Amino acid sequence: MKRRRLPLMLGFVVGVMSVVSLLPAIASAQVVERWVARYSGPTGVFPGPADDKACCIARDPTSGHVYVTGRSYGGIGYGGPATGDDYATVAYDANGIQLWVARYDRPHQQCPPPHWCGGNERPTAIAVDPHSGTVYVTGYSSSGWPYTSTEYATVAYDALGNQLWVARYDGRYDGSAHAAHASAIAVDPNSGTVYVTGSSYGGTATSYDYATVAYDASGDQLWVARYDGPGHSDDRAWAIAVDPNSGAVYVTGESYPGGYATVAYDAGGNQLWVARYEGPVGIDYVHGIALDPTSGNVYVTGQSSRGAATGADYATVAYDACGNQLWVARYGDGSAHAIALDPASGNVYVTGSSYGGAATRSDYATVAYDACGNQRWVARYDGAGDSDGANAIALDPTSGNLYVTGISYTRATGYDYATVAYDASGRQLWVARHHGGPTGYETNAVAIAVGSGDVYVTGYDYGREGGGTTSYATVAYSTSEMVDSPEVSPMGEPQEVRRPRCHACCSNGSGSSDETTSETARAIRWCGRMYKRLLKIESRKDAQHQVDLDEVLTGEVEQPQP
């Protein structure tokens, strides 16, 4: 077969996948609350009843089990063993039946009065290995006497709640007492490698740095990678993501003298690139990261100040797999708290709290962007009070529906969980509110997970005892058992959901980010691997499309002649 040669830059673009979704008018529906499960730790010890607050939730897609973790008060003592705040991880089956509870407190030790030896353990993140069912919890834990600071503490449990291992990382550069706080965790579903990131003191020359630690499935430390920004001062990592195809690790946070700093590592801990974003005045706070496994693009969101007199915006930044900034999208008067990505369409969804004017004040505001950064829609939710803030977001990849949860105030009940469902066009499907305690007591939803037609929300409320006692409260909603309502939701225009051809990645073989590293050759190889991966995806769509990769890397492609 005779073939012709077509010029092609070293790079890739995402293939178009177009599905037109026609949305007829349908009746709105009321979601069914399937179950509510609470957990409280020990009570009756100084300073009083339990003060337990869940922070995080994860769902095992294989077993359907739901795992919730947070801090749980276990007592206090002086001059001897005590626990203070502990990690407390609770497992539920899909019907809300509690399967097990696992608590973690650092090993007890004696110390001289009046020192308090109990310390505090505060979990910040949870993840589940979808293949092994292993549950990983990370956070920070008291370093123990004689130090009075904290360390990373990562705990692994099997599916039955048995503790498999504990790995601690303090990063103390000279043996002195300085804090290390783990803030996020991710698991590579292929290798089983566990990645933890946060901030760790690096000495007077660098102050606090990003510190990312990799462990194998047995808890053995594989590597530590630290990042010190150009200001050599406070650098704090808050979010992490892993590319399941390449094994690359992406860490993001805030870096002095100001702005977001996103760092990419390969699976061996070698730094690939650093990309920085600084808003108009350099006061910027990162709150989330998402990765597109198809394109390899990375999306970071948070809050970016416009100045003391003008407030702050959502600021979402997109990078390709080599750290080139693709676009920046800002949405006014608010702070983005969470981000989600639809792997089918490439759409990016950001949620948080946004000022809606004197009538509604703070509202949920969820913003949708396509893969090119074009704003597709904005959906706002006001809970009939004057204080609403979304904390978490999750997308159901099967339906494409989006679920947002957070805290919402009404004059009738005070603060509630408020969970809002949207379809892919931004149409509100339903709202579910939960209040577990006396009117006026705070109830706060902080995390969300989805799976098998159910939505799981966790946080804390005062439902067990009231009077200043908080408990974990996890609520499950069924979207497959919807109750019809006579009300009809207003319809928007038909929406086209697609993955647009908008950006070429790695076109020059090296990143164009604000910071370059000595790893240019590695970045070029990285781009090549990413390109090959997308060519495989494209070849599955068109069996007649053949590409000679050797010629691709020299700048030319041969294609079959019709």
Can you put this structure into words, describing what you see?
The protein is mostly beta strands. Mean pLDDT is 80; it is low at 1-27, 44-48, 485-497, 507-521 and 531-562. The protein has helices spanning 520-541, 549-553; strands spanning 3-7, 18-21, 27-39, 53-59, 66-73, 85-92, 98-104, 121-128, 135-142, 150-157, 163-169, 180-187, 194-201, 208-215, 221-227, 235-242, 249-255, 260-265, 271-277, 284-291, 298-307, 311-319, 325-331, 334-341, 348-355, 362-369, 375-381, 388-395, 402-410, 414-422, 428-434, 444-451, 454-461, 471-488, 495-498, 556-560. The chain contains two helices and 36 strands. The strands form ten sheets. It has a four-stranded antiparallel β-sheet, with no helix packed on it. It has three domains: 1-10 and 503-562, no CATH class; 17-40 and 279-500, Methylamine Dehydrogenase, Chain H, CATH 2.130.10; 68-271, Neuraminidase (6 Propeller), CATH 2.120.10. The chain is globular and about 55 Å long. Helix content is 5%, strand content 50%. The relative contact order is 0.15.
